[in-house]
Amino acid sequence: MHNPYSAYNQHSGHQGLSGVPPAHDHYTGGGGGGGGWDSHLTPSTAGLAPQMQMHSGGAAGNPGDWSRDPIPNVTIPDLPSYTPDHFESYQPVRLFNELPSHMTSLAFDDSGQLLAATGLDTDTLYVINCSTAAVAKPCPSKKYGCHLARFVHKNSNHVLFSSTKPDGKDIVRLVDTKKNEFLRYFRGHSGLVTSLEVSPVVDAFVTASLDETVRVWDVRSDNCQGIINMVPGKRGVASVDPTGRVIAVVSQDKQPGPTSLPLIHLFDSRNFDHGPFETQPIYDPTFNYAAAGSLGAPYPTVPPITQIRFSPDGSTCLLTTAHNVHYVVDAFDCKSLARIGSPTAPSPAAPPFSSSEADFAPDSKHIVVANAEEGGNLGVYSYPLPDPRGNDGTVDQMALMQRPPELRNRETRAVCQMDYFGNAPMQRVAFNHALDMFASVSGKQLCFWVPTEKQA
C-alpha cells in the first residue's frame, strides 16, 4: 500500500528486537511492506496482518477514506525552543476547588482558549476559559457518564465525549456545551471506549474500545466510516498524526504479561482499508532481552497503555500508561526510543478511565509527566530524538552532529521537577501549545501553570 512516510521509511530496517520471540506471537512477518501477511484473507482484506482486519464504511465513495473533505497538505510550523530555565519558571497560578470531581481527561481547543475536563464523580463535562479562568455552566451526563472529551475544529462549543455507564451503551456523543444539548450520537461500539482522538486537520475522529475494534468517524455523519478488528483478547488505543494522514493503533493483551509485547501499527488514513504499512513491537529499550533470554530470566511487562500522543512535529509518539512509566517511539519506523519513569515491571490492570498521564511540550523535545518518580509532582524529561533523515531516507550524520550534545545522547534525562503541594498525587497533565501553559490534576484539584514572566 501507499506509505505516507515513504520518503523517510527507506532507511527502516528495524524488524523488531532480536531475542524476543514473544514480540512476534501476534502477527506474522516484521514491519510494513506486506511480507508474511496471512494469505487466506478474502480479497477485501488481502494484505492485512492476522491481527487486524478492515471493514470500510466507504466515506464519499472512497473506501478507506475517513472524511468527506480532502485532507489538506499540512506544513509543520517552526517550533519554539524551551530551556530548563523556562520549565523551572512555571508556577501554579489558579486552583479550581469548585470542581468537586476526579478528572479523567483534559483537552484544549485549537485556539488554546478553552479546556475540556471530564469529572468521574459528578459525571460532568466542564469547560474552562484559559485566559479568564471562568468556568462555563457544567454539562452533566448523569445517565451516561463522561470521559475522553475532545473539541471539534469548526465550533469550539461542540465537544465529543465517550460514555462510562451501561445506560450510555458505549456511544460517543457530540454535545453543544453552550446550549447543553446533544447534537449527534455515534453508535457502533459494544464495549467501553478506551480512546477518542480528533484528527488535527479535519473534523474526523478515531475511537478504540474494549470490544476489540477501532473505528473511524466523520463528525457530520452518524455512520462509522470504517472498522479495524483486532484479534480476541486485545485492547487498543488510537491517534492521528499532525498531518492527518497517519492513524496509529496500539494493540495489547487485555491482561498484559511478560510473554507478549504490545504492537504499534501505522495506517494511511486515506487508505486504511489496505492495512498497516508498519507494525512493530513496543518494548523497554533499557532492558537487555537477548541476555535475559539466554539466562532464562523473565521479560518485563509493559503496563496497560492508555493513550497515544504524537509530538507536535510528528516525529515521535508518546505512549502513556496508567502507571509511572511511559514510552517514546519513533513515529516513522516505530522503533522504541526511550522509557520514561519507573523500571518496567508487572503491574495491575489499568483503571477503566485513564488518560492524560503525560504530554509533549510545544518544542517536541521535552515531555511533562504527572507524578514523576524523582520526587516532584511533575517531571520534565528530554528524550532521544529520532535520527534526522536526508532526502534519500538515510540518517543525515551531519545534521545529527550539528545537534547540541544534550540532544545527541540516547538517554532519557530529567530536566527539572515541579513541586505542588496538593491533596493527592498528581495524576493528569495536558500542555496548551497555543498559550504556553499547562493544566494538571491532583485528586479533585485542577490547576493552571504559567511561566513566571507571564503572571504579570
UniProtKB/TrEMBL annotation:
SMART domains: WD40 (SM00320). Its main location: nucleus. Keywords: Nucleus, Repeat, WD repeat. Residues 28-37 have a biased composition (Gly residues). Residues 1-74 are annotated as: Disordered. One of its GO terms (biological process) is RNA metabolic process. SUPFAM superfamilies: WD40 repeat-like. It comes from the Eukaryota. GO terms for cellular component: Set1C/COMPASS complex. Gene3D superfamilies: YVTN repeat-like/Quinoprotein amine dehydrogenase. Residues 1-15 have a biased composition (Polar residues). One of its GO terms (molecular function) is chromatin binding. Pfam families: WD40. WD repeats lie at residues 186-227. It is found in: Nucleus. Belongs to the WD repeat SWD2 family. This is WD40-repeat-containing domain protein. It comes from Catenaria anguillulae PL171.
